[in-house]
Amino acid sequence: MKRIDISYGGQWYSVGNRTLDDVHREIQEGARAGEHWLAVNDGEGSPRPAYLFITPGVPIAVIPVPEPQDPPTDGQAPAFDDPEPEGLSPLWDGPTIHTGRPRRR
């Protein structure tokens, strides 16, 4: 794995040279402890060190970025294959907020 992207507070950070399990473990242990500073990189090209304050309930997303030659593992979703023709959006058949209104097509 080349790097792990992290979304925190609406900003993007990255972690390099660590495994996904290691980063998950550090975040979980830090949240259990009540507070923890997670060392990450800020910026592209020449990364700058940054520290994210991890506490219980803090929203954080951890996104592994595989090497181009890495095959997907069981835990990773396959690459998105859009079955819809170009230029047409798919029809939404999911739940609606206003159940009394007819669906627009």
Tell me what the structure shows.
The protein is an alpha+beta fold and 105 residues long. It is 13% helix and 30% strand. The chain has one helix and five strands. It has one helix at 20-33; strands at 3-8, 11-16, 36-42, 48-54, 60-65. The protein has a three-stranded antiparallel beta sheet, covered by helices on one side. A two-stranded antiparallel sheet has the order 3-4. The longest helix is centred in the first third of the chain and has 14 residues, at 20-33. It is globular, with a radius of gyration of 19 Å. The chain starts with a strand and ends in a 40-residue tail after the last strand. The model has no long low-confidence stretch (mean pLDDT 80).
How many individual helices? Answer: 1
Largest sheet: 3 strands, antiparallel
As a whole number of angstroms, the C-alpha radius of gyration is: 19 Å
The ordered H/E elements are: EEHEEE
Q: What is the mean predicted local confidence, pLDDT?
A: 80
Oligomer: single chain
Task: Give the low-confidence spans.
Answer: none
Distance between the termini: 43 Å
Strand order of the largest sheet: 2-1-5
